[in-house]
Amino acid sequence: MKPINFSNTATAFEAKTDGDLRRSYLLFKTINYPTLVKLGTSFINVALKLRLPIKNIIKATLFKQFCGGESIEDSQKTIEDLYRFKIGTILDYSVEGESNESDFDATYEETLRTITKARGNKAIPFCVFKPTGVASIELLTKVSEGKALTEEETAAFERVKQRFDGLCKAAHEAGQPIFVDAEDSWYQDAIDDLVYAMMVKYNQDQPIVYNTFQMYRKYMLDRLMKGHQFAQEHGVQFGAKLVRGAYMEKEAERAAELGYENPINPTKEATDQMYDDALRYCMEHNATVGLASCSHNEDSAHLLMELMNRYGIAKGNKRVFFAQLLGMSDHLSYNLARADYNVAKYVPYGPVEKVMPYLFRRAEENTSVAGQSSRELMLVNQELKRRRAQR
Ligand SMILES: Cc1cc2nc3c(=O)[nH]c(=O)nc-3n(C[C@H](O)[C@H](O)[C@H](O)COP(=O)(O)OP(=O)(O)OC[C@H]3O[C@@H](n4cnc5c(N)ncnc54)[C@H](O)[C@@H]3O)c2cc1C
Q1: What is the pLDDT tens value at each position of the chain, 391 positions in all?
Q2: What residue owns the CA closest to ligand 1's atom 39?
Q3: Among 49, 248, 302, 384, which has the minimal tally of Cβ within 10 Å of its Cβ?
């Protein structure tokens, strides 16, 4: 097996014009400064609340880098652009933390539209939804804590179950795998129960419903293995979407505030180790596990390729996908796709105001760590320099 050279930025950015790269450079350079991101986040939040005319600025910068558009139709060009390079799209209606029933229903309906769009469409290998787009955080938390629900809450939770079932059923009928994203740890237990019930119902022949495992959480490998055992006991396939996890600061803050143990691994190394052990586990059980490795980490990508090779798993095996986010880690996506691995990218879309929490997380993820430039900034800069040197 020939290792892929991920520093090949020519392949990584072959779809990008010089203008695209300069715009990305400017953006990553700006969000490289943590203080600027913190100030910018507060400013944007206030400006949107006051209805100041900043939507166009956001659309031309953060939104353009990380989102496909405001609607499915708007995202069509991105879907086609990615598919020209054999990269699939995961249409992600990026609305989360909704608070009332009509918003939950609207998110549900929109997610159904993404499933219809994906049906029989080779360019869209997965669908996805965020639990807090279709269920209230307070309710999920109460269920996770095992507290008694009022009559009204019981009825609301029934509607949540119906929304989960409606989405997974539609995905099953479309023969289209669907991811259930993971958010904060304190209401994940309720989500796990809902997702496992869906796996039992819809994963009889193939992994249709995928649960998300945030490997930055302590004991997550055990939970992954228990999930797989549960699927085995019920004679169904297991869908595992692995991520490291995107809410580390929030988790630490809440744990400190309420005085319980921080659920996040003590070090980055511990998270890396757990992520890689999870990859090993999934590959070892490839016959009954569908895996989506959702990461921008090169070492994990190398490890997964090595494991596929070791277990004789073909690159095109639909049970193994590499996935990244739009606007990030093109050096992985484009190089892996060129080497014939299955690759997909989340293409978030939605009204600008609604996708802001997602965009803030991306800005934060791309600020500098210990004064170093972020990975994306270095890659874009490297490619701009390479192009200049060629002229
Ligand atoms: C397709 C896709 C889907 C995603 N879906 C979800 C989702 O459903 N839920 C979700 O939470 N995130 C999701 N993410 C976001 C994902 O969690 C982050 O992009 C990811 O954590 C970045 O890490 P990495 O694997 O790219 O590797 P790296 O950049 O090597 O790792 C960074 C990550 O390591 C962990 N980490 C960093 N420092 C420490 C520390 N001191 N101690 C412990 N751990 C540490 C954190 O998770 C941090 O984000 C998704 C990402 C992709 C690509």
Answers
A1: 778 999 999 999 999 999 999 999 999 998 888 887 888 888 888 888 888 888 899 999 999 999 999 999 999 999 999 999 999 999 999 888 778 999 999 999 999 999 999 999 999 999 999 999 999 999 999 999 999 999 999 999 999 999 999 999 999 999 999 999 999 999 999 999 999 999 999 999 999 999 999 999 999 999 999 999 999 999 999 999 999 999 999 999 999 999 999 999 999 999 999 999 999 999 999 999 999 999 999 999 999 999 999 999 999 999 999 999 999 999 999 999 999 999 999 999 999 988 998 999 899 888 877 666 788 999 999 999 999 999 8
A2: 268
A3: 49
Burial state string for 50-84 with b = 16 or more CB within 10 A and e = fewer than 16: eeeeeeeebeebbbebbbbbbebeebeebbeebbe
Q: Whose CA is nearest to atom 28 of ligand 1?
A: 297
Question: What is the CA(246)–ligand 1 centre distance, in A?
Answer: 5
pTM for this predicted structure: 0.95
In whole angstroms, give the CA distance from residue 159 to residue 183: 20
Q: Are 241 and 213 in contact (CB under 8 A)?
A: yes
Nearest CA to ligand 1 atom 29: 297
Which residues are near ligand 1 (CB < 6 Å)? Answer: 181-182, 212, 214, 216, 243-248, 264-265, 267-268, 271, 294-297, 323-325, 346
